[in-house]
């Protein structure tokens, strides 16, 4: 039986910038003020199955930089990758797509954000590393709590 089971496979096929947007809502007036940035990073990832063994993972970063309370710069970036993955059980596949693949894509996205910052004439910005394993575990916990709340709600209504 073990002979028929294929060995797990994982390979990064391609990394690409799927979408990017850079805005300076204050225009050139942002360059006339002192620079004390307040940086906010929002992360999200999405997975699409392309065929039996290929998946597209898209890591979306939204970097909002405020200066003196006003939005000085907004960068929205989608860093994507195509991954060959086979031979994994559902739980392993979920972790690979939800944590491991985004962790591979993040350095590319981080470099792109830094590059766009300097091209827009702002100081360089090197985003701090992200623990995607912890984010994935947190996401699983939230889903479990939501599912439990949904299951408990009808039972609570029946007891009244």
UniProtKB/TrEMBL annotation:
Q: Which domain of life is it from?
A: Bacteria
User: What is one GO cellular-component annotation here?
Assistant: cytoplasm
* Function as written in the Swiss-Prot or TrEMBL entry: One of the proteins required for the normal export of preproteins out of the cell cytoplasm. It is a molecular chaperone that binds to a subset of precursor proteins, maintaining them in a translocation-competent state. It also specifically binds to its receptor SecA.
Query: What's the protein name?
Result: Protein-export protein SecB
Q: Which gene encodes it?
A: secB
Q: What is its main location?
A: cytoplasm
- The species this protein was found in: Nitrincola iocasae
Gene Ontology molecular functions: unfolded protein binding
Spell out the family assignment given in the record's similarity comment: Belongs to the SecB family.
